[in-house]
Structures are given as structure tokens and as C-alpha cells.
């Protein structure tokens, strides 16, 4: 979000230099908090979120309030959709699953959860000996949600099509999340031997593939076509809220020292080789000299105001009604609609108190 605000010109390099240095960098308000909160940046963040369980709860009640406004004729919110981007470890927070039943009962099809299932939390695997995606699927289906799972990238499609006897699917279903983490911390040869090699049928399926091709078998959350299809299906679904469970790799694109490793959260700097690999992977126009001059302070990249990327970004924001995140501190008062054929005087409104005041004779004592 900060990077996008930088591209849009709403945050300068000096503020970005103060990431996670809210007090030590240029005094209070000079840095950027890592955890969004309206109290820390009152003109930027709308809600306190990140992996504390507050995002799911806020999203559900925002979607519910949008329906409330629409049903009572206060505001047309029929084109508004609430998206919550969450983590699989975050779903263990008490608040994360606490209101999913309400979302289903209210049929909030204006709400979509996207849960990034990278199988890893701050202190290790989310479910090392289990399968978090199946667990979350059971929770949400049981609560009445529409569930979409994006597990494997399209590179797996030919292998799955050739899996006529179900050997590959069985292998996938019986492999715990901890093993999947290990595979992505190793190599293609390791995956060939320790994943496909566990069954002679699956070993034969990949014997024509090189170790590099096996290594490049993506997970679904990194396949933009699969994600597009999932987002489209979520928006078009009616009568239920939708959750998209997308399987990914922690530290994807950051290099072999980061991807799938338990130390990812504690590693704050990329090595020079990792920086160059990251640049090449994202096709960034940054010369080697700019990285080599100070590997611990790489330059910020901006494609230029007249670039195709910036033109597209600004066009999309205009069509969507402005830049986000942004938080308004002043609002236009909403007009409360009156009841057709009923008095709307202040005295009449005062008589309709909620909750109602019951006479003492109607109360029972125990």
C-alpha cells in the first residue's frame, strides 16, 4: 500500500525511509507504521488491520452496514464490494472466524475474503502436520459460505489431466503442509525424489521433465489467470459471501534464501545477489551499479509519470472513484428518511426510543 501511495505521489521517499521508524525518523509522524491504524495515520488508514484478526471482523460489519444503508434507502451501495485480504495464520485469531456465521445468515454476497495460504506464520508452520486449506474450507462451508480454492498453477494442469488413476491427487492429499514448505526451501531435484518419487506412477509422470521445470510448477496463488478466474467467480456469485483460499509460497520472488523458509519474517535485508535476482524477476529497469553502490539501501523505482504503467494505474483509480487507502475526517451528514404517512416531528421520534422502555409490571423477578 505504501509503495502504491509512493507511485501515486502521496508519499515521498523520506517517509518511506522511515518505515517502522515512527518516532526515530523525523519525529512523530515522520515515519510509517508497519501495522496500519487510523490513530497513527488519521488521513490514510481507514481501519486497524494486518494479521491481528481485526480485518475479517471489520470487513464483515462493513459489508453488513453497506446492506443496511441500501435496504433503508439511505445510500445506493449496490455496486460496492468489500474485499478482505487475510493470512492463514491470522485465521487462528479469535476475531477472525467469530462473525462468519453472521455474514452467511445475512447473505452478504457483497463480501469476499481472500486468504493467502502460505502455510507459515511468524514462529513456524501454520499446520505443520495438517492441512490448513482443508481446515478452513470446512469452517467456511459449514458456516454457509461459498468456497473457492486456488491450489495449483496452470503448469500442473497437464499432470493432473494425465492422472487417470488418481495417484497424483492422492499424493497431494496425503502430503502435510510442513512437507510442502520443505519442498520450496530445496530444489527441483529434491521435489522429484521426495514428492513425485514416493509413488512409481507419479515418478514416471515427470520423468520427461527437467529439474528446473519441476521447480517451476507454481502454486495457484501465484498464477494470475487462476486468480482472475477466482475473483470473477466470487463477484458473480449471489446469495452467499465468498472466501478464496489461495495457496502461495512465503517470500515468493525474494530468492532462494527467503522462499519457504521459517526465517523469512526475521530476515530484514536482501543480499546483493538476491537483490539482482529480485530485480530481474520483476523486470525493473535498475542498473547493477545502483544496487552495488549500497546493497543495504537499494534505490526506489518509479516508472515515470508518463509511463504506460502510471497511465493505467491512474485510469483505474479514476474509474474506481479515487485513491485508496484514504480516510476522510469530515463527512456530509446523511438525511434520515421519514416514514411514509407517519409523523416525523422531534416529539414523534423521541417516542420511538430503542430499546423500548418496558413498564415495570412487564418485568419478572427471579
From TrEMBL:
What cofactor does its activity depend on?
thiamine diphosphate
Q: Which InterPro entries does the UniProt record give?
A: PDC_E1_N (IPR035807), PDH/Transketolase (IPR051157), THDP-binding (IPR029061), Transketolase_N (IPR005474)
KW Membrane (keyword) present: no
- Chain segments carrying region Disordered: 332-366
Where does the source fall among the domains of life? Bacteria
Biased composition range(s): Low complexity: 337-349
Q: Which Pfam families match?
A: Transketolase_N
Q: Which residues form a coiled coil?
A: none
The signal peptide here is: none
Q: What are the UniProt keywords, alphabetically? A: Thiamine pyrophosphate
Q: Name the Gene Ontology molecular function terms of this record.
A: magnesium ion binding
Q: Which Gene3D superfamilies match?
A: 3.40.50.970
Q: Where is the Transketolase N-terminal domain?
A: 52-155
Return the PANTHER family for the record. PYRUVATE DEHYDROGENASE E1 COMPONENT
Record's protein name: Transketolase N-terminal domain-containing protein
Give the species this sequence originates from. Phytohabitans flavus
Q: What broad taxonomic lineage does this protein's source fall under?
A: Bacteria, Bacillati, Actinomycetota, Actinomycetes, Micromonosporales
Amino acid at each position: 500500500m505504501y509503495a502504491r501511495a509512493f507511485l501515486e505521489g502521496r508519499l515521498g521517499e523520506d517517509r518511506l525511509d522511515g518505515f517502522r521508524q515512527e518516532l526515530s525518523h523525523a519525529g512523530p509522524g515522520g515515519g510509517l507504521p508497519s501495522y496500519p491504524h487510523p490513530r497513527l495515520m488519521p488521513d490514510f488508514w481507514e481501519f486497524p488491520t494486518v494479521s491481528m484478526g481485526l480485518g475479517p471482523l471489520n470487513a464483515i460489519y462493513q459489508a453488513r452496514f453497506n446492506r443496511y444503508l441500501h435496504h433503508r434507502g439511505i445510500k445506493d451501495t449496490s455496486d460496492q464490494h468489500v474485499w478482505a485480504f487475510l493470512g492463514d495464520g491470522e485465521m487462528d485469531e479469535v476475531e477472525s472466524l467469530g462473525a462468519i456465521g453472521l455474514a452467511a445468515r445475512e447473505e452478504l454476497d457483497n463480501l469476499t475474503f481472500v486468504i493467502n495460504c502460505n502455510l507459515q506464520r511468524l514462529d513456524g508452520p501454520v499446520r505443520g502436520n495438517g492441512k490448513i486449506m482443508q481446515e478452513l474450507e470446512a469452517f467456511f462451508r459449514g458456516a454457509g459460505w461459498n468456497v473457492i480454492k486456488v491450489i495449483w498453477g496452470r503448469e500442473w494442469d497437464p499432470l493432473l489431466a494425465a492422472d487417470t488413476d488418481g495417484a497424483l491427487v492422492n499424493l497431494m492429499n496425503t502430503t502435510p503442509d510442513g512437507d510442502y514448505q520443505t519442498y520450496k526451501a530445496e530444489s527441483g531435484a529434491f521435489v522429484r525424489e521426495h514428492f513425485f518419487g514416493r509413488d512409481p506412477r507419479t515418478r514416471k509422470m515427470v520423468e520427461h521433465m527437467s529439474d528446473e521445470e519441476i521447480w517451476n510448477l507454481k502454486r495457484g496463488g501465484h498464477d494470475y489467470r487462476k486468480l482472475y478466474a477466482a475473483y470473477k467467480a466470487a463477484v458473480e456469485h449471489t446469495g452467499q459471501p465468498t472466501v478464496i483460499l489461495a495457496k502461495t509460497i512465503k517470500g515468493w520472488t525474494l530468492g532462494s534464501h527467503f522462499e519457504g523458509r521459517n526465517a523469512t519474517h526475521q530476515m530484514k535485508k536482501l543480499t546483493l545477489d538476491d537483490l539482482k535476482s529480485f530485480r530481474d524477476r520483476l523486470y525493473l529497469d535498475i542498473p547493477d551499479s545502483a544496487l552495488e553502490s549500497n546493497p543495504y539501501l537499494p534505490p526506489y523505482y518509479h516508472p515515470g509519470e508518463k509511463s504506460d504503467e502510471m497511465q493505467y494505474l491512474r485510469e483505474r483509480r479514476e474509474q474506481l472513484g479515487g485513491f485508496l487507502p484514504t480516510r476522510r475526517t469530515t463527512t456530509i451528514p446523511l438525511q434520515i428518511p421519514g416514514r411514509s404517512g407517519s409523523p416525523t416531528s422531534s416529539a414523534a421520534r423521541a417516542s420511538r426510543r430503542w430499546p423500548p422502555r418496558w413498564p415495570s409490571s412487564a418485568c419478572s423477578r427471579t
